Each structure stands twice: as C-alpha cells, then as structure tokens.
Amino acid sequence: TTNMNLCRLLSIWTLAVGASAKGPLTDDADEGTPFKHFLAFNSNQTCASDSHAMPFNNQIRGVNLGGWMVLEPWITPSLFYQFLGGDETNTAMDHYSFCEVLGPEEGNKQLKRHWESWVTEDIIKELADSGAVNSLRVPVGDFMFEPYGPYIGCTDGALDYLDTLLDWAHAYGLSVLLDVHTQKDSQNGFDNSGQTQGFQWTSRISNYPRGLTTFQHWPIRAAHWIGDFDSEAVNYTNINHDNIAHSLRAIDHLVDRYSGHPAVLGVEPVNEPWELTPIEALKTFYWDAYLIVKKKAPYWKFIMHDSFRFTPETWGGFMKGCPDRALDTHIYQAWMDPSSRLTFYNNACAQKQQIALMEREFGPVIVGEWSLATDNCAMWLNGFNDNLPGFPRSPCKYIPCSLPYMGSDQPGTPVDPGAALQGPYGTGISGPSFGLCPVDRDWMTERYNSAESGSNWMSSPPEAPRGRDGTDEVMSLLALKKISAFSGIGHGFYFWNFRTDLYNPQWSYLLALERGWIPKGDLNDERIMNSCHREDVGAFVCEANREAPEETVKNGISYALGEEKKDSAYVVKLEGEPLYSEGDAVFDEFWKSHRATGATCDFGGAAQLKEANVTHTDEYYSDDYYNAVEVKEFATWKIVLLVVIGTLVGSLTGFALAMKLSPKFSRRVRSSTILRPVTRSTVFRQSFGNMLEPGLQGYAGISMD
User: Fold this and answer.
1) Measuring CA to CA, which of 31, 62, 613, 647 is 20 to 30 A from 471?
2) In a 3-state reduction of DSSP, which class is residue 230?
C-alpha cells in the first residue's frame, strides 16, 4: 500500500511542478481529497475547509539535540580525532564516511557509546527544569528509517535510543519535532546532511611539501539529492525521482513508528535544502510529504525549511489554507563580517520585520536554528580540518581540547599535546594544535570614548586581558534581543545546540544557561520584552485577519475570551466589520498580555501581525542598553608625569643607597670636580653626612679633602 501511494504521488510530480511554475491553477475537476480536518487540492497545492483542530496558539521555546543521531565533527570532535593524520583511505569527515571507514561493527560500537553519553535523561531533565524550554528539535537520519550504503549495520539500534528519548521528553513535559536532517546524496553538500558532496582529494597534485594529504570541498561543493547538479551551468539538469521516492518512504516509516507517541509535535521532512534547489520541485516534495503525514498523523505539525530563501516571493501563498504547516528559517550571525556589538544588536532586532512579514504572507514562522556566536572560530564549524576560504575573519582564542565525553576508551583521544596541526588539509585551516583547540573570541568592555560606537572590537585580542572581558555582558544582552525578536513576533525558536564537546557557550544552551546569558524561567521578563526598543523602527499590533472567514474569527475571539474566563456569548451575533474590529481589540490585548509566556498572534488563523508606529518615553524602558562595565582611559600626560616622577624618585633612592653602602662610590662622588660644589654644600652635608665613611664626616671647620 505504501509503495502504491508513493507511486501515485510521484505520478503527479511532473504535473504539480508544471502547475506550480505557472502559479496556482484552478481545476474545476479537482474536488479535493478529504482528510480528517481539511480538503487537499493537488491541482494547486492548497487546502480548504480547515477545522483548526490544533491551532498554533503556543510558542515554541526549544533547543536542538544536534550531533546525536546525525554526526557533525564540529559538535563532537572527540569522535573524529581518530582520523587526524589520516589519508584518502582512512579519513572520515561526516556520518557517511564514519561508517564507511570504520565498518559496520566498529562504527556501531562507537556510535552506541556515543548515543548513550551524548544525550542522557539528566540532560533532558535539566533542560525541562530550566523553565525556559518546552520543546526539542531532534535531527534524525533518513537512513534510520530506510537504511542504505555504509549506514546498514553501522546505525543499528539508533531507533531504540530515539524511542527512549521520546519517552523521557514526554515524562518531563517536552514536545519533540523530528527533523529529517539527512537525505540520500545530500541536500546541501554540507557534512550536516550526512554526506559531504562536491569533494576531491588533491594529494597527487600537491607535490610540495611532500607527504601532505590534501583535499578541496568548498570551491566545488554540490548537492545531488534532488537531481544532478551542473556546477558550470549552476543548475540542475534533471530531477532524481528515485531519491525523492526514498525520502518519502523514510517519512512514511517515521510516521508509522511514531504517529501514536504523545511527545511528538510533528516532522520536518528535510533540513536546509540548499538555495540552488529547484524551488518548484522542492515545493512538490513538501506537498507530497505533507499528505503522507496528515493521512496517518492528522494532529502533527509540518515544518518546512525555507531553503535559505526567506522571502514572500518564494513562499507567499504556498499551501494556503493547509492546517498545521509552518516555515522554518535559520538565523545565524557567526558568518557575518566582524563588527561592533552594536551591529550585532541591530541585526538581531531587525529580524522582527522579516519574520512579521513572512507571518503575514505565509503563516507561522519558527526560527529552527540560532546561536549566540558572533564569530566563525568554533573548530571544524565549516568542516573537518577545513574552512571556508577567508574564514575565520578574525584571530581566534585557543583553549585546551576537551577530554572525550564518552570515556577514555575512545580511539584518538585525548588530543596529542605534542603534535602540531595534523592533516589531511583542506582549503582552510581549523584543527587542534599542541593540545589546543580554537573556540571563539572574547568581547572586551568598551572604553568611555568608544561606547556609543562600540568600536573597541577592532583592536581587541582574541582573549581579553584580565579585567577587560565583556563577553558575559555582550552575550547576555544579545540573547535578550534575539529571544525578543524570535519569540515576540513569530511562533518560537529552537536554539542550536543543546551542548558542545568543546567549551563553546555561544553554541551550547546548557553552558549559556550556566553563564547566565540566557535567563531561566518562562522568559516572562520585561528585559526581554523591551530589549529591542532602540532598534525597533515601529511596534506591532495583532489584528484580525480580514481574509479569514467570519466563523474562524469568531472561534479565535471565543478562544481568547475563554482563556481569560470572559463571556463570549455576544460574539455569535457579530458579523462583517464590527466582528473584525472586535477581533482587533481582543486579539491585540490577549497577545500583548500573554506573548511573554508563549502566546502567538495566530488564533487558529484568525489573526495576523501588523506594524504600528508607537513612541515611548525613556522611562518606559528598563534595560541597560550597553550593559557593560566601561573602562576610562588614563590621560597620556598623566602617564608621562608619573614616569618622570618615578624616575627621579628611583634615581635619588639609588644614589642615597649607593652613598650609604659603597665607600668607593662615596669617595668618587666627593672627589668629583663636577660634583664638588654640591658635596661641599651645607645641604649635602646635612642630608648625606651620615652616609659618608667613618672619620671622613665633617661639618664647619673640618676638611673633607
């Protein structure tokens, strides 16, 4: 039955792609396919008759459990140290090659040790107890549900660990979004897709220095999941229907296994398909996957990554009217050019406008990945022993590489403290050297004359001097602004990542909590609410959606009033503009009162956000904009004066000691023709007489010649 359904879906692939390319088509013959809560129209990939059985009224405040089921060397380098110094035959740099190089038996042995130690029940409990987390995004591999290639045997038992994680999450009141992080032949060419694509060993053409093992990846990156990519023409020459069918089967098996588990929030069918993916083919894949999910798991959310194209032109109107779908966008600052802290603050808060725009043009938006990193220093962030050309943009701080989190039995650990940077070598540099690993850069406290511009970063070393480390202040304020932007406007977020092997609090939610950068509790804090006030170009209001049916607006108003235990009987009598105006007032009041505790401007599709210019006085705000200990510079003239005084005092002290302790020096001073006027003076005799040699002391009438 599954194969028949997949064949039916694929049989309409070409028709759907053609239809989408010309925009939604109205097909009078398409009466819609009935699902539990809606009708689905294949002809234009839209839905109708949404009963809003599961309105998206609560925000997601979550973290990613990255590096667990899908390996990424930069997150868990302890698993990949064993490949340092390797060559073309024994080097692994992603999950696929990890299993390929080690083989199914050894690979599975190491993975089980990793699965048991990287995510534990204590960690899940700690996240839940923080009070700031209500959901987990768990990257999983397509190979876990539809094994292929070197994954066969190597990843045996992974689903058992995932089952246990879901039970833990349910026990601690956390929902789980299952994110299919990998695809066959890679959806983006990154190692996070399971298999690095666009890769070439170059050792044979690198004859000097001899013995080096080299490779290139970034200049020739490609992704072949959705079809064959022509790097010269920079486009796809065909669609790989076999890979698409494989992906849909994996989703079908995932839904079969977990559709009845109470912890599962929903599924994300593919993570980060790269920006060159044919958009209409991707949309058709999303549509087909959506129908598979909704047939067997009618209450699940269906989250779609934006393919790095977070624009209304790309996604506006797609799957219009379809319940429980949301758009995932990933917002990072780690790849931005080095700049002042003020630039990063403004960039964080500016995301509000685009999120609000997409909420209006598409629907619910989730920031599925974000971090506090403002640099590209994290070791192997851009690939095992590799880096993007030109990265990192600034010098990085090095710290002792961590001991293996899975125990001392892990091959290749600990890192050899006597070894310099080891191969194989990519087109960029990143890796351990003499037992030290690159992690990040410190932020320095601003001086009084550069606080407004925040320009002190330009002369800052990677590791701040004692007393000048302002990282805690900068990261704390940046976290407030990001949380304000991502949760105050959209439908929530997932921080990347929950932990890191190396000490990287900018990438580790647990370490950020420990440092106090991210507040604990329900995030109902006015510092978060008002943290973007200087960056905001306007405020937002939650208004009734004029395109929503009146019945939908009535249901939304009744929900809001019911949550506040207010009478909603009058709502049934309203219609037309009076109904929508009442919705404006009710929705906005409810959203502003409850958004800090997770409310969204949605109300089952009855409301949407709009900008409204609002001016507040300075007394309205309570946060400290700079939030840094400012260090005043010491004036140059004062420094010079102190040096001169110190030199004079030191010289006189030395002279006095020499006169006292060295008879020879004392005789030479007295016998000096140049100094004789001084040594014969009464002042000198009174000051240094007791320092002269015995028998040579004298006052008036006694010769000292």
Assistant:
1) 62
2) strand
pLDDT of res. 23: 42
Q: Any residues with CB less than 8 A from the CB of 398 and at least 6 apart, and which?
A: 433, 436, 437, 438, 439
β-pair partners for 264: 176
Rounded Cα distance between 676 and 671, Å, is 7
The four Cα atoms 563, 569, 574, 575 give a dihedral, to 10 degrees, of: 70
Return the half-sphere exposure (C-beta side, CA atoms, 13 A cut-off) of residue 227.
16
> Whole-angstrom Cα distance, residue 442 to residue 626?
16
Q: Which residues contact 671 (CB under 8 A, 6 or more apart)?
A: none
Q: Which residues contact 274 (CB under 8 A, 6 or more apart)?
A: 187, 188, 189, 223, 307, 308
Name 544's bridge partners.
Answer: 607
**pLDDT, tens digit (0-9, with 9 covering 90-100), for 237-255:** 999 999 999 999 999 999 9
pTM here is: 0.81
Percent residues over pLDDT 90 in the chain: 63
State how far the Cα of 139 lies from the Cα of 367, in Å rounded to an integer.
15
Which residues contact residue 213 at a Cβ distance below 8 angstroms, ignoring those fewer than 6 apart?
86, 87, 88, 91, 201, 203, 423, 424, 425
The pairing of strands 397-400 and 436-440 is antiparallel
Contacts within 8 Å (CB) and 24+ apart, 220-224: 221/189, 221/197, 222/189, 222/197, 222/198, 223/185, 223/186, 223/187, 223/188, 223/189, 223/193, 223/197, 223/198, 223/273, 223/274, 223/276, 223/277, 224/185, 224/186, 224/197
Alpha carbons 362 and 14: distance in angstroms, whole number = 24
Residues 372-427 pLDDT 10s: 999 999 999 999 999 998 899 899 999 999 999 999 999 999 999 999 999 999 99
Is the C-alpha dihedral spanning 406, 409, 412, 414 positive or negative?
positive
Q: Alpha helix (H) ranges present in 198-273?
A: 241-258
Strand partners, 301: 266
- What pLDDT was estimated at residue 605? 82
Residues 6 or more apart in contact with residue 506 via CB below 8 angstroms: 371, 372, 373, 374, 378, 440, 475, 512
Close Cβ partners of 364 (under 8 Å, ≥ 6 residues apart) = 56, 325, 326, 327, 490, 491, 600, 602
> Any idea which residues carry the catalytic annotation?
272, 369
Average pLDDT over residues 501-520: 96
Q: Quick check: 317 and 45 in contact, CB under 8 A?
A: no
Rounded CA-CA distance 105/355 in Å is 46
CA-nearest of 412, 409, 474, 410 to 442 is 474
Cα distances (Å, whole numbers) of residue 386 to 349, 381, 435: 32, 9, 18
**For residue 20, what pLDDT is reported?**
41
pLDDT of residue 623: 43
Q: Are 596 and 523 in contact (CB under 8 A)?
A: yes
Q: Which of 402, 426, 428 is nearest to 415 (CA)?
A: 402
CB atoms near residue 651 (< 10 Å): 10
- Nearest-angstrom CA–CA distance, 408 and 590: 54
Answer with the residue of higher pLDDT: 132 or 697: 132
